[in-house]
Design goal:
The structure holds two protein chains of two kinds.
Chain A: E1 5-16, E2 19-30, E3 34-39, H1 45-52, E4 60-65, E5 68-70, H2 75-80, E6 83-86, H3 98-103, E7 109-110, E8 113-114, H4 116-130, H5 145-158, E9 163-167, H6 175-190, E10 194-198, H7 202-208, E11 211-216, E12 219-225, H8 231-239, E13 257-267, E14 274-284, E15 288-292, H9 299-307, E16 314-319, E17 322-323, H10 329-333, E18 336-339, H11 343-347, H12 354-358, E19 369-370, E20 373-374, H13 376-390, H14 407-420, E21 425-429, H15 437-452, E22 456-461, H16 464-470, E23 473-478, E24 481-486, H17 493-500
Parallel strand pairs in A: 3-10, 3-11, 6-9, 9-10, 15-22, 15-23, 18-21, 21-22
Antiparallel strand pairs in A: 1-2, 1-4, 4-5, 7-8, 11-12, 13-14, 13-16, 16-17, 19-20, 23-24
Chain B: H1 11-37, H2 42-51, H3 59-88, H4 96-113, H5 118-143, H6 147-166, H7 180-183, H8 194-197, H9 207-224, H10 226-236, H11 238-243, H12 248-271, H13 288-298, H14 303-319, H15 331-344, H16 347-355, H17 369-372
Helix pairs in contact in B: 1-2, 1-15, 1-16, 2-14, 3-9, 3-12, 3-13, 3-14, 4-5, 4-6, 4-12, 4-13, 5-6, 5-12, 9-10, 9-14, 13-14, 13-15
The chains are: A alpha/beta, B mainly alpha.
């Protein structure tokens, strides 16, 4: 019997202690279609994909390949069935060439000697056919993120995978690269590959997908044809209520200078040059200043230098009139809240319960400890209040291990902690990374509320939409320098992209 | 929201169960070895081992030898606590063995050469042990030298330094140091009437209750104080600790100093009872510090659990002495004990096994098909 479906996951149910991660979910992927999988953080997308990959066994439900029921017990089975995936974080060997990475694990050998010529021919043919431009002999560490992603795609194609999964593939790309990726995906689908596209970004789904399946809190909400739907409808399905896609905000009323940075230079850990070069800027109370730029242009080092995680090579930082250029992290934290870029590395102690994480910046204050002894009762009450006020969802409330929480709720916890503590400056680094529209809306509201209550907000973001919508002033960072001081109301996304790519700069600013 | 975690999923219960499994496996393996060497005596052999002091018929003798087991448990417990405490801060203090050695050297030198009273001798052991730990901590914090490497090196340096400095206070005819009872009885730890409870076992001193109190104190520090909070945070995630403004370098040094002091005091707890003398010709680091590693893991990395684990390990170690020497070579008991102790380190392994079937999803470790896959070249 011929079915139009390449892969079908029927009535999948997967439970974890205390939570039903997938509750009777059905996902049918047609041959040659681009099928988007949309859902909030913690909606069950990851679990569903893990089931498809054989990392988890579903308690109920079956998986069919070409109409025939299959058992997928481990990732090897998935691979044998032709299921491949481009991970959000690429799995490439940095010091190998593109070609070596593509054939890694499936090398053809002759008497124990690698045979690369044939592989090269196949890779070049695939690259031609799908318009995936790569240099097979370039080292991964030397090529752009976009080319790395194309390498990942070629890896799947080289293995003759028919079902391709893209896990939030656009998060790390520039606008131009996103355009290219969309085209590549369309080409792949035209050639008969079936694509599962996991994304939070509604505009991308609208542009590229044929159909979209929406999950919410582990439940199947529905599958819609993209032709017959709108962004608003999709976001309503995903979040369960109306979401404002564009942030509403009044004009800014900038006050006194809260943060004044003069000639900040920070060394790089990777190379001998400085990662941040002679950066000067000011942030006033009641305004949101955004540092925009493509990942890896010195933003991370800038944040480290400002928060005290890395020492300055030179320069002066003044916060609330006090010179903090060489102050300790805790001294800086007296007036500064910091939502860190990497919530697992810096933001949370994952093996601590939620309540301990919520007092991470304040456990030493008299409110939570006396004479060096923790006041567990006060900590619990405080944690319960923050959890309640900020709708942080977790399996067991205050005592849940941070590790077992979904990414979105981990981020909510960090934001709750940082906003509740005393601060005059909020340093928010990619605060919406990996969050869904519902949560993003919440974060943006919080940022604007902060601004309107007279705090100075310094936002570091890679998301163009966020940069355009939230900020009152945009500073573009390119190769460690501020190359543009822009007004979001007077600039287009395309123009901003040119600044970010280093093709344009307006000089003579810096504040 | 607040769903109850099932009984067998509670971490405490899991640790306990896996500790028991380790013990049973260790005994089973010991039994097999005995059986292979001499099948007739295997059952009585393993029972003898387990009975330890209960091999004696009279209750008075039983109490006396229980006392002996406890005397040696105290230093073991202190070494185990040293390792446990450092482990919580993410540091593997294998140097506890060396800190124990320099502690022994310091307290014996203070007692025999300087003729100081016991409390000063004990303090000397603590201070020198802490110094030994501080070296490791300093290297780790400032130069990022692995604490295992520098710890092991210092174990040997300590051993020979101690052998050297104690050779001036040894007996003429043997490599052993002078007897405390003869040279300086004021350095003997007081018994405070405890020896009476153990059939006048003169070696039973306040060391035993003090070591248990130390365990309770450490439990308190780790779970109830800001210092413990910082320590564990640093152990779990050094970067996050730094982000939160903790002085992680200072904490590393202080942690290893405390660990060193604990191991040093552990040595004082043994050598200041007069139960043993130090042999200045010994060419191996005493196993006390290493057995402490097993006791820590068997105790589920919990100071309170470590009390019971230390007792158990000392119990079978002492019990080994009662194996029938006619049936088994004298090394046999050491071998079996070594096996059991070795298996004690498997607590974490069994815990992992128990948790395997339904592990909660952890981000970034999901889907790795191409890493394991790729058979279809």
């Amino acid at each position: 019997m011929e079915t139009p479906y390449a892969i079908e996951m029927l009535n999948i149910t997967k439970r974890f202690p205390g939570i039903i991660a997938n509750d009777n979910i059905t996902l049918q992927l047609k041959r040659g279609e681009i099928h988007a999988l949309l859902g909030e953080n913690g909606a069950g997308k990851s679990t569903l994909m893990s089931v498809l990959f054989g990392l988890y066994q579903a308690e109920e439900g079956i998986i069919k390949k070409d109409g025939k029921e299959v058992k997928i017990n481990n990732p090897n089975d998935a691979n044998d069935l032709g299921i491949g995936m481009v991970h959000q974080h690429f799995k490439l060997v940095q010091c190998f060439t593109v070609l070596e990475n593509i054939i890694l694990g499936v090398e053809t050998t002759k008497n124990g000697v690698l045979q690369k010529d044939e592989a090269r021919k196949k890779v070049m043919a695939l690259s031609q056919k799908y318009g995936l431009m790569v240099d097979p002999d370039a080292l991964i560490q030397d090529i752009t993120v976009g080319m790395q992603q194309r390498t990942e795609i070629l890896k799947m194609l080289y293995r003759d995978n028919e079902i391709l999964i893209f896990d939030e593939p656009t998060a790390v790309l520039t606008p131009q690269e996103i355009e290219e990726l969309m085209q590549i995906m369309k080409n792949l689908a035209k050639e008969g590959k079936s694509i599962l596209f996991i994304s939070h970004k509604l505009n991308e789904i609208m542009e590229v997908a044929d159909r979209c399946t929406v999950l919410r809190r582990g439940k199947y909400i529905g599958t819609v044809n993209i032709k017959d739907t709108t962004q608003e409808e999709l976001s309503r399905m995903m979040v369960g209520r109306d979401v404002q896609l564009v942030v509403e905000k009044g004009p800014a009323h900038p006050g006194d200078v809260v943060l004044d940075i003069q000639g900040m230079t920070v060394a790089s850990k990777v190379h001998d040059n400085n990662a941040v070069k002679n950066v000067s800027l000011q942030v006033r109370s009641g305004e949101i200043v955004c540092i925009a730029g493509i990942d890896g242009n010195g933003q991370t080092e800038f944040v480290y230098g400002l928060s005290g995680l890395e020492p300055l090579v030179s320069g002066k930082i003044t916060l609330c009139g006090k010179d903090i250029s060489h102050a300790s992290i805790r001294e800086r934290a007296a007036e500064m809240s910091h939502i860190p870029e990497d919530r697992h590395k810096h933001g949370l102690v994952l093996d601590y319960p939620l309540e301990y994480n919520l007092v991470l910046q304040r456990y030493w204050q008299p409110e939570f400890s006396k004479n060096g002894i923790l006041d567990h009762k006060a900590i619990r009450e405080y944690a319960d209040r923050l959890i309640e006020e900020n709708d942080v969802r977790s399996g067991q409330g205050a005592i849940t291990l941070a590790r077992s929480m979904s990414g979105g709720n981990q981020q909510k916890a960090i934001i709750a902690r940082e906003l509740d503590k005393h601060h005059e400056l909020l340093l928010a680094v990619q605060p919406t990374r990996g969050l869904d529209v519902g949560a993003i809306e919440g974060v943006h509201r919080n940022l604007i509320k902060e601004r309107d209550s007279g705090k100075a907000v310094l936002l570091v973001s890679l998301e163009l939409e966020e940069v355009m919508n939230v900020s009152d002033r945009i500073l573009v960072m390119y190769e460690g320098e501020i190359v543009g001081d822009l007004d979001p109301k007077q600039i287009t996304v395309e123009e901003l992209g040119l600044y970010m790519a280093g093709a344009k700069r307006n000089t003579g600013e810096g504040a | 929201m607040n769903e109850k975690v099932s009984f067998f999923k509670r971490p405490g219960v899991q640790t306990f169960v896996s500790s028991i499994i380790c013990v049973v496996f260790g005994l089973l393996l010991g039994f097999i070895i005995l059986f292979v060497i001499n099948s007739k005596g295997a059952v009585t052999g393993i029972v003898t081992l387990l009975k330890n002091f209960m091999n004696y018929p009279s209750q008075a003798a039983q109490m006396k030898y229980l006392g002996n087991t406890l005397v040696k448990m105290a230093p073991l417990l202190m070494c185990a606590l040293s390792i446990c405490f450092c482990y919580k801060a993410g540091l593997f203090n294998i140097g506890a063995a060396g800190q124990y050695v320099v502690g022994a050297g310091a307290c014996l030198y203070a007692a025999l050469a300087l003729k100081l009273p016991w409390i000063v001798c004990m303090l000397c052991a603590a201070v020198v042990g802490a110094l030994w730990g501080m070296v490791v901590g300093f290297l780790k914090a400032n130069l990022n030298v692995n604490e295992v490497i520098s710890g092991i090196m210092l174990n040997w340096i300590g051993l020979y330094l101690v052998n050297m400095s104690l050779s001036g206070v040894k007996e003429l005819s043997s490599p052993y140091t002078l007897k405390l009872t003869a040279v300086n009885p004021s350095a003997l730890l007081p018994s405070m009437g405890l020896s009476a409870l153990f059939s006048k076992n003169q070696y039973v001193t306040i060391a035993i209750p003090l070591s248990i109190l130390t365990a309770v104190l450490l439990w308190f520090i780790l779970n109830k104080t800001t210092f413990g909070y910082e320590l564990k945070a640093t152990g779990f995630n050094k970067e996050a600790a730094r982000y939160a403004g903790m002085k992680e370098k200072r904490n590393i040094i202080v942690t290893l100093m405390i660990g060193g002091a604990l191991a040093g005091i552990g040595a004082a707890f043994l050598y200041l009872t007069g139960f043993e003398e130090w042999s200045v010709s010994q060419a191996a680091v005493p196993s006390m510090g290493f057995n402490g590693i097993a006791a820590t893991f068997l105790g589920g990395l919990n100071p309170i659990g470590t009390i019971f684990a230390s007792y158990f390990i000392q119990h079978i170690t002492s019990g080994g002495a009662y194996l029938d020497k006619a049936l088994y070579p004298s090394q046999c008991s050491d071998l079996i004990i070594a096996l059991i102790i070795y298996l004690c380190g498997f607590v974490l392994f069994f815990k992992t096994v128990m948790n395997r079937p339904k592990k909660a999803p952890v981000k970034d470790t999901r889907f790795k098909p191409e890493e394991k896959g790729g058979k279809q070249a």
